[in-house]
């Protein structure tokens, strides 16, 4: 197993290099880079992109002459100003040199600073991380806690009325877009048109963030902090999690059901029953491990999707400032340090999650031996 793990770790290097290289090449051809964003802001065509430049660049934009530039909309700006912009953003170097420098920094987990937020990328990611961890962790846990028992029950009751109507509910729930259901929940329960039961912003209410919940404060009270913070935390997460969970468990439920059906019909199950084992012993002592292999195989994709990609619209609708919203805004603003840093981190986590999934295979079924498989 050690040799297999080492091979997988070594294969992560070219995989990660390929991901970053392809993304870097695509970015080179994408119109409207950070220099263009600043120019648009100076010309009154955009907002927010010039804050850091005007604050830290001295007389940037103060000299305007009839200079020419290769940037669209740069007419009337001093060429020296454009050159200083390119130098500030690192575009005065050839693309290959910039890519090599980026890789060297990322190997050391040095992601630099955001172009337009005047904050280090690490601080920015850590600031948004609690929201994404909350959504991703709880939706994955909730999805599996619902899907696996429901899928097993449907397999045991295959063809019954329970199986039919639960399948109908699961399929309808899967067909409803999460963001549309989120809007409906807001209208019904968050002060839209009917009830005002749930909050619409953040993970905690403003009053919860007092000195009594700060460990470094003299007024810190752990029992009060826990008793008030945890209920408030889940109170804020209720509607977003319901919106995400609506369609999250459909695929896993049907996958669990079909996997258990395939195993239940095999010869070893008949043999186990003939030996006098109870149905529970057959199901959880023999069938469960074999049937769960395919569920484990889908875990990395489900986890990564829920953690990083699945919550963008939900974060926007419920004003949850997480990594999904950060990534979207960074792409829109052409904040390349944030875009590449999040891509690098997400890719690393995805690759390691896939490896952990393979190792879980061997834990569930010791007969699986990756050492004998050609990578």
UniProtKB/TrEMBL annotation:
<keyword id="KW-1133">Transmembrane helix</keyword>
<keyword id="KW-0813">Transport</keyword>
<dbReference type="InterPro" id="IPR000515">
    <property type="entry name" value="MetI-like"/>
</dbReference>
<feature type="transmembrane region" description="Helical">
    <location>
        <begin position="338"/>
        <end position="364"/>
    </location>
</feature>
<feature type="transmembrane region" description="Helical">
    <location>
        <begin position="9"/>
        <end position="30"/>
    </location>
</feature>
<keyword id="KW-0472">Membrane</keyword>
<protein>
    <submittedName>
        <fullName>Microcin C transport system permease protein</fullName>
    </submittedName>
</protein>
<feature type="region of interest" description="Disordered">
    <location>
        <begin position="49"/>
        <end position="69"/>
    </location>
</feature>
<dbReference type="InterPro" id="IPR035906">
    <property type="entry name" value="MetI-like_sf"/>
</dbReference>
<feature type="transmembrane region" description="Helical">
    <location>
        <begin position="131"/>
        <end position="152"/>
    </location>
</feature>
<keyword id="KW-0812">Transmembrane</keyword>
<feature type="transmembrane region" description="Helical">
    <location>
        <begin position="164"/>
        <end position="190"/>
    </location>
</feature>
<keyword id="KW-1003">Cell membrane</keyword>
<feature type="transmembrane region" description="Helical">
    <location>
        <begin position="291"/>
        <end position="318"/>
    </location>
</feature>
<dbReference type="GO" id="GO:0005886">
    <property type="term" value="C:plasma membrane"/>
</dbReference>
<dbReference type="GO" id="GO:0055085">
    <property type="term" value="P:transmembrane transport"/>
</dbReference>
<dbReference type="Pfam" id="PF00528">
    <property type="entry name" value="BPD_transp_1"/>
</dbReference>
<dbReference type="GO" id="GO:0042884">
    <property type="term" value="P:microcin transport"/>
</dbReference>
<feature type="domain" description="ABC transmembrane type-1">
    <location>
        <begin position="129"/>
        <end position="357"/>
    </location>
</feature>
<feature type="compositionally biased region" description="Gly residues">
    <location>
        <begin position="49"/>
        <end position="60"/>
    </location>
</feature>
<comment type="similarity">
    <text>Belongs to the binding-protein-dependent transport system permease family.</text>
</comment>
<feature type="transmembrane region" description="Helical">
    <location>
        <begin position="233"/>
        <end position="256"/>
    </location>
</feature>
